[in-house]
Specification:
This protein is of the alpha/beta class and 278 residues long. The protein is built from eight helices and seven strands; from the N terminus they run ββαααααβαββααββ. A seven-stranded mixed sheet has the order 1-3-4-5-7-6-2, with helices on one face. Helix 6 links the parallel strand 3 and strand 4. The radius of gyration is 22 Å and the shape is elongated.
């Protein structure tokens, strides 16, 4: 198991960061949405970025439209994940079973044929596992059934296994988090770790989520090459824009640190809901 619980989430030796903080916008009224595109997630991400840069709109209108775009994106991800799981993944599972039956039916003298069929079955099983992982990333059902902490722990473990980057995960007991807030924090961790794998060249990362002073505090830290301060100031990347917009929709605060080595993302979300009794 490559994921471990760590008592100290901050790596030692990091220089004092220069922090850029985004200002939260008020939540929109429930039940209001903007006009939504109905295509795949990448066009939706581009639309979200375009809306974020369109500052001529009023704050409330922009907030409603951005929330609607994220809701459409999540619904599209849920639909695709369900179709992949119920359709293609089931067919791959049946194919793997049938290949296993063929291997047993091949005469013992046909060694080469048996080996070829066995290899094909293993490749089919591997493809099924990859597809299952993809559907989990599109729509983590564990988030709805077991809650935010379990979903984050599971994602960190899967990320470590697939990317070969050790993730140290630490959490406080947190319960009763509304689904929209849970999705927000989960997607932020997902995007941040994706950036670690793509850009940082780091071998380790740290994810911490805790409850403190009436807030949920989330931190993602790596000790890689660090993010360009110009990118942080301008929020030019789709990933950073997505993170910022998600944080603002839940009235949170975002800071991105660009110290001499590594990158640190901190998110604070006020607890405005009634927590479940411990």
């Amino acid at each position: 198991m490559v994921i471990q619980e760590d008592r100290s989430i901050r790596p030692r030796g990091l220089a004092k960061p220069v922090v850029l903080t985004s200002v939260p916008r008020p939540r929109s009224k429930p039940g209001t949405k903007g006009q939504l595109p109905h295509r795949g997630s990448r066009p939706l991400e581009n639309a979200i970025a375009g809306v974020a840069l369109e500052r001529s709109r009023s704050g409330d209108e922009l907030n409603r439209l951005t929330r609607g775009l994220f809701e459409a994106q999540e619904e599209e991800r849920r639909r695709i994940a369900r179709e992949l799981h119920d359709g293609l993944n089931q067919q791959l599972a049946i194919l793997a079973v049938e290949l296993g039956m063929l291997v047993r039916d091949v005469p013992s003298g046909e060694k080469k044929l048996r080996e070829s069929l066995s290899t094909l079955r293993k490749r089919t099983e591997g493809l099924s596992d990859d597809l299952r992982s993809m559907t989990h990333q599109l729509h983590p059902a564990v988030l709805e059934h077991l809650g935010l902490i379990a979903a984050l722990r599971s994602h960190c473990a899967d990320f470590s296994q697939h990317e070969g980057i050790r993730v140290w995960f630490k959490s406080d007991p947190i319960s009763g988090t509304p689904l929209d807030v849970s999705i927000c924090l989960y997607r932020i961790v997902q995007e941040a770790l994706r950036n670690v794998a793509k850009h940082s060249r780091a071998k380790e990362a740290w994810v911490s989520i805790k409850r403190k002073k009436g807030q949920i505090q989330l931190s993602i830290v790596d000790k890689g090459v660090g993010i360009d301060s110009a990118v942080v100031r301008k929020f030019t990347g789709l990933g950073l824009i997505s993170i910022r917009e998600r944080v603002q929709l839940v009235n949170g605060k975002l800071s991105i640190s660009a110290p001499g080595k590594g990158t640190r993302i901190d998110v604070c979300v006020p607890i405005t809901w009634k927590e479940e009794p411990k």
